[in-house]
Prior knowledge:
The protein has helices at residues 3-28, 30-38, 57-111, 117-151, 155-158. Helix 1 (3-28) crosses helix 2 (30-38). The protein is mostly helical and 163 residues long. 6% of the residues are buried. It contains 5 helices and no strands. The longest helix is centred in the middle third of the chain and has 55 residues, at 57-111.
Amino acid sequence: MSENSHEERIAHLLKLMESFKADTARMIGAWPFQAILNHPYAPNSSVPIPNGLRNDEKLVMTWPRIEKQVLEWRKILYLMSYLFRASVDEMRPCDERLSINLERLRAYEQMYPGSPVQRLGVLVDYVVQHSMQSNEKLKAFEDHARAYAQEYKDVDSMGKKTS
Length: 163
């Protein structure tokens, strides 16, 4: 492996990470994302060099740079998972109230067909369905993040599962 090829791969990794961070910041907002970036790493975090790569002297020398990117990516992944889980937990009572109110609206629609309440019922139904779909996606994200943490024996860094 040539010196340039190795440095180009490291540069490509850094560029991918910066692109990922920029896209994530655009999605959730600059301030919340900066709070995630400012969050400290879990104590004693490290990423061991894979056995098959220990003979590559250049890779071993650049491993601290690679490890830093992996740890930062893990931190973002785990904190986003935590935030998503907290969001689902916080929204659960609201979703339950919306479902109860939707049932009440349905009963009212039966009593007064063609009333403006029907439009409201359609809107509330959409909100309930959208919320349920979003919650499922957020739970799936957490499940994938947890599976990643388990695969790399890093569950302690991820934190406790609450739901």
